[in-house]
Amino acid sequence: MNETTLQYIKCNSLVIATSVETSNSSEHNVYYPDHLLIYVQQGQFNFRNKNQLFTIEKGAFCLIKKYTSLTCFKTWGENEDGFKMIAFMLNDEFIRKVSAKLPLIQNKDHVINKPFLPVSPNSILLGLMSSLEIYLKEKQNMAPDIVELKTLESLIGIARENKNILTFLSDFSQPSKAELRLFMEHYYTQKIPLNELAKLSGRSIATFHREFKRTFNTSPHQWIKERRLLKAKELLTLTNRKPSDIYIELGFEDLAHFSRSFKKHFGKNPSKVTSLVA
Q1: For 132-169, what is each residue's pLDDT tens digit?
Q2: Which of 164, 162, 158 is nearest to 110 (CA)?
Q3: 38 phi and psi angles, rounded to 5 deg
Q4: 8 A C-beta contact, residue 150 and residue 128
Q5: Which pLDDT belongs to residue 111?
Q6: How many Cβ atoms from other residues are within 10 Å of residue 264's Cβ?
Q7: Radius of gyration of the chain (CA)
Q8: pLDDT digit string (tens) for 84-124?
Q9: d(CA 95, CA 152)
Q10: Cross-strand partners of 129
Q11: Could you please report the per-residue DSSP string of the chain?
Q12: pTM exceeds 0.70 for this model
């Protein structure tokens, strides 16, 4: 049976880091509004971008640029029980706050126009990942000042053996917009206030509402609710999972609220949906 365990570190409503343990090798799409520092602990992290396939091996790091659309899948060896990784999000706001403390001056004439870059492992980055593991295991969130320290630590570690790699983040001070459909497909299950969603997408709240209406022909609240319900029906139909297994991960407050919303939308209780999986 394919199983996936996700754990998160948050700062207020913002996801700062996540750990993934999975025995599911199926492909899925990812699209993040933050730069990602990925550390593979077990197995291989494979992703496609513009018809090119890349692999991050066990023990390796990789920096993926924000707003990069990837198709990913995980693999592992016969002597391994699955795939494990930790991802640390390099948020623009925190990068701005610590950029003045960086020991290197960015070379603005050497901009790296690639969606991802391998990063050489070193004691600083390995120490960062070890400290994140403690937060993840103890299910602790981070205060903003700690996030700043971890962001600074990660950037120093990245730059230690990759002198020009900070230019990879050279546009962090420039406003940029996420592609709205890809962005919302990534975020619709997360309980994030609309004003924060707008900010993460690179828009003011007014622009977010206006472009959302033009793109989806409905309001953000309505689209998110309907998209969650459609995903719920898909999971109940194509897996053996029960309503009590899925309502939290889809962003619903409680099981009763989920059941009422599902019945109102589809005309039947979620417990009455017949799974197609034997």
Answers
A1: 999 999 888 999 999 999 999 999 898 887 766 666 66
A2: 164
A3: -105, 135
A4: yes
A5: 54
A6: 9
A7: 20
A8: 999 999 988 888 888 777 755 455 555 566 788 889 899 99
A9: 8
A10: none
A11: ---EEEEEEEETTEEEEEEEEE-----EEE--SSEEEEEEEESEEEEEETTEEEEE-TT-EEEE-TT--EEEEEE--TT--SEEEEEEEE-HHHHHHHHTT-SS---TTS----SEEEE---HHHHHHHHHHHHHHHTT----HHHHHHHHHHHHHHHHHS-TTGGGGGTTTTS-----HHHHHHHHTTS---HHHHHHHTT--HHHHHHHHHHHHSS-HHHHHHHHHHHHHHHHHHHSS--HHHHTTTTT-S-HHHHHHHHHHHHSS-GGGPPPS--
A12: yes
pLDDT digits (tens, 9 = 90+) for 171-196: 554 556 788 998 898 889 888 889 98
* One-letter amino acid for residue 267 of the chain: G
Contact 232, 222 (CB under 8 A): no
Angle in degrees, 0-180, between the axes of helices 205-216 and 180-187, rounded to the nearest 10:
100
Dist CA 94 CA 98 (whole Å): 6
- Which residue do the tokens 């996801």 mark? 15
